[in-house]
Amino acid sequence: MKASFAFLTVLLFSVFSRVQAEEPKATLEAKMNDAWEVAWGRFYQKDVQTFMDYLSSYEPGKEQAHLPTAEEVGRQYPNPCGYSTGMEDGMILGGAMLSLICDRFAVTGEASLSERAAEVFAGMSRCATVHGVPGFVARNVCPEDQKSVYINSSRDQYTHFVHGLWKYYHSPLADEATKVEIRKILAAVADRMIEFVIPANDYDFCRADGKRCPLGICRMWNVQAHEAARLPMIYAAAWDVTGDERYKLEWRKYVAEAVAQSANPDKNKPAYALLQMQASLELLYDLEPDKELKSTIATTMQHVSSLAERRLSYTLKGLAKKSPEEMRMLGPDWRLVKEWKDQKGYLNPQWGPYREVWHLIREAGESALISLMVEDPQMTDEQKQQLQAVILQSDYLHNSSCGIIFHLAAYWKARRFQAL
Fold this sequence. Notes:
Layout: H1 2-43, E1 44-45, E2 50-51, H2 70-74, H3 90-108, H4 112-129, H5 155-169, H6 176-196, H7 230-242, H8 245-261, H9 271-287, H10 291-320, H11 324-327, E3 340-343, E4 346-349, H12 354-370, H13 381-392, H14 404-416
Antiparallel strand pairs: 1-2, 3-4
């Protein structure tokens, strides 16, 4: 009798523990479904098939009434980067969304994701072609006329753009016709790098009008440690999908030095910088034929992962200080803000207190994602708890930051590798 009671106790405890474990998983999935619907329902602009940066209203149909008009974009107002307008980071978001769709499909096999991926790819293709400048990747496209773009891009946009297309190319979601288009686009990007990223231009790939970027954000070589791998990564991706030996020569010319320069990134860099570094290293790691160099890349990626872990802890402390009301804060109509910052002739509207809220939401997802990009990622109990906390404590239905896309990316990457 005692043995039977002991067995029943153990059985009940086992069932209770399993129910406890399954309940958070179900709750996490429900929260992520909210984030998914919000990303597509509020941040996605179907007229140009791209994602925008923030919301200025929760009222249906008015969420992004702040976006620049075609006339404003045409005169490059308020600045040639579209800084602070909501059109600033379209290709960062597109690349991240395309990558996370590939991860989600690997987990769920949902047939509908094929259409979603095709939509994101169409928007990214538009940003690379609508302006008629081969190899130039615009940040975003104006929804009003579906053609106007800001002429100053950045290496950050290119990094996520190339990484996302490369991930998509190698996924089951891309059909042969899509792969043909990806080859053309990545070849054009690599060709632009070969033509423009030269000493005479201080290794700048230049704006759409062919002029040097005054901010230094388009320089691809002689850059900081977290940026060093971007140029060979682009050449490696182009060679991988096309087989063109010209791109392989450029990749091999830069890669060893780039990896060496990447060894010691500034530990105080924000999560977005570390994420882009990790994305470029991930591509290089996957394609690297030299075992010693491949091992060095892996070591650096582990180091970047450790930096991201500290970054996530720091970000969670920042989020904990914010009230629910602050976390529901909406972004401003940039035209009406009081403070504008002059960045080497580019006038940038300042968002005030909203900037920190927008940034913290994004940093939380980016920091969690970085640690999952190493080969065979293993999450510690603390890391799992932190990612769960980020998701469970977020009110995605009242969130105005595009950072939720990175929450989705971290969640589905964790699910793909059975780390969550």
